[in-house]
Design goal:
The complex is a heterodimer of chains A (214) and B (165).
Chain A (H helix, E strand, L loop, with lengths): L1 H40 L2 E3 L7 E3 L11 E3 L5 E3 L7 E7 L4 H17 L4 E7 L8 H18 L5 E2 L3 H4 L10 E5 L5 E6 L4 H13 L7
Parallel strand pairs in A: 5-6, 6-7
Antiparallel strand pairs in A: 1-2, 3-4, 5-8, 8-9
Helix pairs in contact in A: 2-5
Chain B lengths: L1 H27 L9 E5 L2 E4 L5 E9 L4 E3 L12 E3 L6 E7 L4 E3 L9 E4 L2 E10 L2 E11 L1 E2 L8 E11 L1
Parallel strand pairs in B: 2-12
Antiparallel strand pairs in B: 1-3, 3-9, 4-8, 4-11, 5-10, 6-9, 7-8, 10-12
The chains are: A alpha/beta (214), B alpha+beta (165).
């Protein structure tokens, strides 16, 4: 009787251990799958140049994820509102020096290509203190000053961080996604490139031809 | 009966132990974080006179090909490099002196000079501590860019054992 109790106890212990190991394996596989998914949706830095960070975006060739964000004046803007237009989503921040260099190019290009149905949406990645109304108001004021200083005529949307994940967790600025009139991402640019590079991507968006990220 | 059960039970135990060990080992290892643009080099431990402000040189290194804004960037929108020490019983940061930045301009806009740190830079902190051993957990706040892109502002820990005698 005593022997049977010992055997049963050992078997129960081993089964418990196996169960625990199985659970740990399942957790492990789940984490690995999540990590793989995150990696697949992220832009990949390719050190192909000493001076520019060119990346390949897996977003190109896919429908642009929809979102709704607020402008500085509080107006809600959805990407879906721009259906039928070629759109450049420009991710930027007031603290981003290269963003300031490309902004005048963007202003000129929007003006040039607006007759062909092209629009730019600026998306600010400046931090917002959402839990503190006073600090939030101050943050918005700072962004508004930045927009004014750069004389940005196109809408600037706040809280870019809230859509970053949908757009591949990009965390370098400036970053732009070029979306054609059917809502597909046809090109992406990461970092400060040149006005002609931006123009090439705008043309892809207007023409509706899928292109490569640059 | 026990002898009969012993072999399969032992094998199962070994298998379970190995599986559990490797599984939990993997669970504990977190995904590799992106390397920070700035790393804290030294010192990790200092000895100071108790209750007497003492200057400490904190050495940092900015990653190759990157720069961070100096403590006094030329543009009001650029984020300065700062050192913060949260309230720590028995220890105070009585002063911080940052080095002057060097000029940097993006190739597309050579006229506009930024004030930045590249390579190694040294922050001179003045620390006052009461007698005893203290662990200082300061943070360096910075915003880094390369010649074409910028990364969001970031904090790195600056941990120093302070022995006040």
């Amino acid at each position: 009787m005593k022997r049977n109790v010992v055997v049963v106890a050992i078997v129960v212990f081993v089964l418990g251990l196996l169960g625990l190991a199985g659970w740990a394996n399942w957790q492990n596989r789940r984490q690995a799958a999540a990590a793989k998914l995150a990696q697949e949706s992220q832009a990949v830095l390719i050190p192909d140049s000493a001076t520019t960070g060119h990346m390949v975006s897996p977003m190109v060739g896919k429908p642009a994820p929809n979102f709704t964000l607020s402008t500085l004046s509080g107006k809600k803007v959805s990407l879906a509102d721009y259906k039928g237009k070629a759109v450049q989503l420009n991710f930027w921040a007031t603290w981003c020096a290269p963003c300031k260099i490309e902004t005048p190019w963007l202003i000129e290009l929007e003006k040039q290509y607006a007759p062909q149905g092209f629009e730019i949406l600026g998306v600010s990645f400046d931090d917002l203190d959402k839990d503190d109304p006073k600090l939030l108001a101050k943050d918005k004021l700072e962004i508004a000053h930045g927009v004014e200083q750069l004389k940005i005529p196109y809408p600037v949307l706040l809280d870019g961080d809230s859509i970053a994940k949908a757009y591949g967790d990009t965390d370098v600025y400036p970053t732009s996604y070029f979306i054609d009139k059917s809502g597909m991402v046809v090109a992406a640019s990461f970092g400060l490139t040149s006005k002609s590079d931006l123009e090439d991507n705008i043309r892809k968006a207007i023409g509706g031809n899928a292109g490569e990220g640059k | 009966m026990i002898r009969l059960a012993a072999l399969p039970v032992s094998l199962a135990l070994v298998f379970a132990a190995q599986t559990a060990q490797s599984s939990f080992g993997d669970l504990q290892s977190k995904p590799a974080a992106k390397p920070a643009a700035v790393s804290y080099l030294f010192p990790e431990q200092i000895s100071v006179s108790a209750d007497k402000p003492t200057a400490v040189e904190l050495h940092f290194k900015v990653g190759d090909g990157l720069h961070v804004n100096s403590h006094t960037p030329h543009d009001r929108y650029l984020i300065p490099t700062t050192l913060k020490l949260p309230d720590t019983p028995g220890i105070r940061l009585t002063g911080v002196t940052f080095p002057a930045g060097t000029d940097f301009a993006f190739p597309s806009n050579p006229q506009e000079k930024l004030s930045v740190y590249t390579g190694e830079f040294v922050v001179r902190a003045e620390i006052a501590a009461v007698k005893g051993d203290h662990l200082v957990r300061a943070t360096l706040h910075y915003q880094a860019c390369n010649s074409a892109t910028c990364m969001p502002p970031h904090d790195i820990p600056v941990a120093i054992d302070v022995i006040a005698e």
